[in-house]
Amino acid sequence: MEYKVLKTDGKAKRAEMKTVHGTIQTPVFMNVGTVAAIKGAVSTDDLREIGCQVELSNTYHLHVRTGDKLIKEMGGIREFMNWDRPVLTDSGGFQVFSLAKLRKIKEEGVSFNSHIDGHKIFMGPEESMQIQSNLGSTIAMAFDECIENPSPRDYVQKSVDRTTRWLVRCKNEMARLNSLPDTVNKEQLLFGINQGGTYDDIRINHAKAIAGLNLDGYAIGGLAVGETHEEMYRIIDSVVPNLPADKPVYLMGVGTPANILEAVDRGVDFFDCVYPSRNGRHGHVYTRFGKLNLFNAQYEKDARPIEEGCGCPACRSYSRAYIRHLLKAKEMLGMRLCVLHNLYFYNHLMEQIREAIDEGRYSEFKKETLESLQGGQTS
């Protein structure tokens, strides 16, 4: 891997990251395809058309359904889903802690029951790395404990300490797996995850500890889970300066267009969020003037596209009135068109962000875009 900062504008970074599966231009939004598919009937051909650079899939979900061993037999996740660009797989940690009703955390890892059929599963650092190695993703995420916000300080500190020990095990196991002759991707990269709830000092100390492990990249986890936006931005401000300046920074599970604009201004490179696809499946679509709810009666006879000037497949060919009709009639095409538009909107927003940083006008771009987003219609 080679990560190179091409331009800075304040704390905002314009960089490129060369991987074995292609070069990623950052800041970048990764399109979330949990089970190796974007919800909303979006194909990998669609992803290429709407400018997706990185697809994100879920270790836990692919392990419990279909199975990572089968996917390895099929040549890995990229071959399996016909995707010729980078893939990031998350570690499964968040799903273990959010979906498992009964779980037992030990130093070795976590025992829990599958949310699908209840069978017992054990996952620790080595198991998560093995699954992700079988998937053959470009970037693997370290296995960590996702802490609820708020949580008692004493518990958060103990959890973070364990997450650090787990990270060392992840790094060692990744090195071992990458050396094996039958590994799908021998150049698989590893990102560590910063945790610490909303305690600035725990976050900072953890950032310093994991920075010393010389990983391929670093993520900020455990945000967008109930804390205020102000708390989120404060944590990012605290953490980023204590991570290596020559490595990419990934803000996990965030967020709205406004969240992305603010986080880029604080030095973040990578983003992912289910908002564009989830909202699209419910008829909520993003525009530069705010979010629209196409179920609203005011769009019944609206012949305009979702957004004037948008180059997405939906806006090039269909009206708000027609898409509203599809949604009301529960036709899958309506959902698909809304998801395609939203993902195009996010990917195009990232292109505009990169261009603004390149041209040294990010502060002005951020201010104008936030004003436009807040001044328009909402759902």
Automatic annotation (TrEMBL):
InterPro entries: ArchSynthase1/Queuine_TRR (IPR050076), TGT (IPR004803), TGT-like_sf (IPR036511), tRNA_ribo_trans-like (IPR002616). Substrate binds at residues 90-94, 144, 195, 222. Residues 11-372 form the tRNA-guanine(15) transglycosylase-like domain. Its EC number is 2.4.2.29. Keywords: Glycosyltransferase, Metal-binding, Queuosine biosynthesis, Transferase, tRNA processing, Zinc. The active site is at 90 (proton acceptor), 272 (nucleophile). Pfam families: TGT (PF01702). The keyword Glycosyltransferase applies. Pathway: tRNA modification; tRNA-queuosine biosynthesis. The keyword tRNA processing applies. It catalyses: 7-aminomethyl-7-carbaguanine + guanosine(34) in tRNA = 7-aminomethyl-7-carbaguanosine(34) in tRNA + guanine. Zn(2+) binds at residues 310, 312, 315, 341. Its cofactor is Zn(2+). Binds 1 zinc ion per subunit. One of its GO terms (molecular function) is tRNA-guanosine(34) queuine transglycosylase activity. It comes from the Bacteria. GO terms for cellular component: cytosol. Residues 253-259 are annotated as: RNA binding. It is an enzyme of class 2 (transferase). GO terms for biological process: tRNA queuosine(34) biosynthetic process. PANTHER family: QUEUINE TRNA-RIBOSYLTRANSFERASE. Catalyzes the base-exchange of a guanine (G) residue with the queuine precursor 7-aminomethyl-7-deazaguanine (PreQ1) at position 34 (anticodon wobble position) in tRNAs with GU(N) anticodons (tRNA-Asp, -Asn, -His and -Tyr). Catalysis occurs through a double-displacement mechanism. The nucleophile active site attacks the C1' of nucleotide 34 to detach the guanine base from the RNA, forming a covalent enzyme-RNA intermediate. The proton acceptor active site deprotonates the incoming PreQ1, allowing a nucleophilic attack on the C1' of the ribose to form the product. Homodimer. Within each dimer, one monomer is responsible for RNA recognition and catalysis, while the other monomer binds to the replacement base PreQ1. Belongs to the queuine tRNA-ribosyltransferase family. This is Queuine tRNA-ribosyltransferase. It comes from Eshraghiella crossota DSM 2876.
